[in-house]
Amino acid sequence: MKPSPEISFVVVNYNGIIHTRELLKSMEDNLKSLSYEVIVVDNGSLSDEGVLLSKEFPHYNIIRSEKNLGFSGGNNLGIKASAGRYIMMINNDTLLIDDSVKELVAMLESDTNIGAVSPKIHFLNPSGIIQFAGYTKLTKITLRNRAVGYNEYDSGQYDTPSETYSIHGAAMMINRDVLSTIGFMPEIYFLYYEELDWSSKMREYGYKLMYQPSALVIHKESQSTGNDSYLKRYYMTRNRLLFASRNRKGIVRLLSISFQLFVSVPKSFLCSIINGRRDLALSTIKGTAAFFGLNNKDAN
User: Fold this and answer.
1) How are beta strands 208-219 and 94-95 bridged, if at all?
2) Which pLDDT does position 223 carry in this prediction?
3) Which of 49, 96, 242, 266 could form a disulfide with 45 if both were Cys (CB 3.0 to 4.6 A apart)?
């Protein structure tokens, strides 16, 4: 019987074969010393990109979903097909430049109370600029926090492992045993906020979340701000309300939802109108309405 791999990499592809191909190639080039498998979920791409990836990477497990299951659904499908003791969900628009992800495994093995860990993340361009070196605590009512080190040049100022309020959706490793306690990633969000909700659940069950700077992942996501879109605004608006509903209790829950409805939403709407982005103003309203239209907000 073939032994189970130590790490299962789960990659969700949606109309992004060029990025996915580059990521898989970077894995082949840099993970020669590790025991791992790769599961790619072609998540409802307009054309069956999984067929092409299967031909190029026959040693990887390529799964095709005819329906776009969202970020969580795609990752969950890949997790269910995986066999590794440790599962690393990694965005298809990332790159590995070495085998330092093994440091994530070492951290998980060092303490059974650690539920998940994320590496240091750099932007691709310009090089050496930090995207993620941990997250600060989320405020109870306004639901605001910040990514530690964001947009700073990496001169080693965040090279000490530390706890983080949340793992980062672009690159996160979890011990498979944790899934039996917390379950799979919540699919109700579809896009945005799901890893924050998942992180909250891990902390609720007493797990620690860690940032490991000895591991590095490169992310192609744009460093610049202002990359808002109709889809992003819609889900960010809906899911911030949803997160407050699911993760706050009592008077804090009421205050948090009220803050979103009477401060954040109107501000986003007005700013969009002033900036000539009527599409974003409309998506803000539709995202708010969609929150109220969700029948079972506590569903996974």
Assistant:
1) antiparallel
2) 45
3) 49
Cα angle at 148 between 71 and 217, to 5 degrees?
55
* pTM of the predicted protein model: 0.93
Q: Using the CB atoms, write b or e for 208-234: b if 16+ within 10 Å.
A: ebbbbbebbbbbbeebeeeebeeeebb
- The phi-psi region of residue 185 (left if phi > 0; otherwise alpha if psi is between -120 and 50; otherwise beta) is beta
Q: Which fold has domain 7-219?
A: Spore Coat Polysaccharide Biosynthesis Protein SpsA; Chain A (3.90.550)
How far is C-alpha 210 from the geometric centre of its chain's CA atoms?
Answer: 15
- Tally Cβ neighbours within 10 Å of residue 179: 16
Contact predicate 13/43, CB 8 Å: yes
Burial of residue 242 (CB within 10 Å: 0-12, 13-18, 19+) is buried
Tens-digit pLDDT profile for residues 83-117: 999 999 999 999 999 999 999 999 999 999 999 99
Q: Model confidence over 157-181: pLDDT tens digits? A: 999 999 999 999 999 999 999 999 9
Per-residue pLDDT tens for 62-84?
999 999 999 999 999 999 999 99
Q: Where are the domains of the chain?
A: 7-219, 230-293
Task: Count the neighbouring beta carbons within 10 Å of the beta carbon of residue 266.
Answer: 12
Token pair of 160 as six digits: 């000490």
Under 8 Å between Cβ of 84 and 8: yes
Give the separation between CA 236 and CA 288, rounded to whole angstroms.
Answer: 10
